[in-house]
């Protein structure tokens, strides 16, 4: 990947964070930490890899994305708005009574959302079902999904891993946002899902490991996933919860907390600096 | 003598018959020979997926398949669909209003010997309370086939409740019988009391009406195959015409047909409503007919309750 393109994607990742944070500020609530760990992956998927057209969000042969960690709507909606699915001004009405931008992803009213999710563990199964349908009807679309690493504690996740491996769904690509934190602490403290790689491999999946904040590694992993036939691919992305804002990074408190006025100010300053840094 | 066939058997045959539609995808959770999705699986193996004993994922996969414009059918026992899969049905199917048909077989006490863990007496209540959900409980083979056709024609989430044991075929013997989703069926006219039943208690309701007739009591009998959306029109007609209602279902008296009927009349035309069903207790092992007797799900008991309802009329 060219240096210029890497910078563009990193810049888009920071813009996703900034727009997401503006949405949280307008709402007075929302999940920042997990949105910021996922932002660079969304940047690569929505602006580099996915076969999608914001003017035709229901196109039958499009690639799909399921946000199984369905609470990370600040980043999700920001990515969709930046891609052109709906006006950026809509983000200011995030979680408002008169807006469709609900706290967790909702597919019937939000253009670009392919599955409603929020009850953890469920989105992944839906992604498997989309891939099943694609296989039966000989479609070429890819189904992408993003799971939280804490979400791996849900039993349904392993039912879905087992099914997708046995069905040999090689058009299914699952990102695991491995930021190592969940509401009550580190994932090891609460209920360790490690070793993640070995577990998923045992379910007949191809497993890749990347730095989830490195667009080149993310894009390469998607290419490798597409080359792998007869097995679905899981991409374990090492990430930093709260990435992009110094005082939020790796801090368990920033799962669903709303910053105060001073914190918002500092966070926007830091994000703006990084947008300028990466701008081409 | 009328023929005896279980609703799950009739269902399996109907699914394989109407499953010729290329846009139907079918899922089961290791119960194909029990839910009778096996007939479809044999005929259309390319569109059938066994999820293994993993109901939550099966329901979720069905939802995902439906987002691609297909009609997804998923199958397990009522207990593991409505019970274990409640959150998945609510959030992954009903909330996004996806075209998934959830088929719960072996519902109620008539599961028999397997006992209380498998005798789901709460599914109608659980499914009825979810917005966007259509809830169907057919009484016999013919009505089950009609329900399958109607579910395919309807674009949206449905829960279909089926039984394990053989039940008498009745609806095909009613010349005017017509299945319309969301519409009750008047099976017998009457002026003294209304018996409103669902599932195999419809057959019991007709027998109860015969018992009452011998005592000079004219009971109206209504079959409510669709619990949601509920046909309020026919229920209010019954309330106005007879002034007393007995509901009958192979389900807990809490939350099911009885509750639905009571909710309907309370609001618009209050009359006494006696709910005949499982009296908020768990089931037991035993033969289906022994269990129906033990828990009072008989025509005789239903007839007695009808007489009490008449006495309660103001």
Question: What features would you highlight for this structure?
Answer:
heterodimer, A: 280 residues, Rossmann fold, five-stranded parallel β-sheet, two-stranded antiparallel sheet, 44% helix, B: 314 residues, alpha/beta, 2 domains, seven-stranded mixed β-sheet, 21% strand
Descriptive notes:
The complex is a heterodimer of chains A (280) and B (314). Chain A has 280 residues and is α/β, with parallel strands linked by helices. Chain A is built from 9 helices and 7 strands. In chain A, helix 1 (3-27) packs antiparallel against helix 9. The radius of gyration of chain A is 17 Å and the shape is globular. The mean pLDDT of chain A is 98. Chain B has 2 domains: 4-168, Rossmann fold (3-Layer(aba) Sandwich); 182-311, Rossmann fold, CATH 3.40.50. In chain B, 40% of the residues lie in helices and 21% in strands. In chain B, the strands form 3 sheets. In chain B, strands 3-2-4-5-7-6-12 form a 7-stranded mixed β-sheet, with helices on both faces. Chain B is globular. Classes of the chains: A alpha/beta (280), B alpha/beta (314). Chain A binds chain B through residues 60, 64, 66, 106-108, 114-119, 121-122, 124-134, 136-137, 139, 155-156, 159-160, 162-163, 167, and chain B through 25, 46-47, 49, 51-52, 54, 56-57, 59-70, 72, 87-88, 91-92, 95-97.
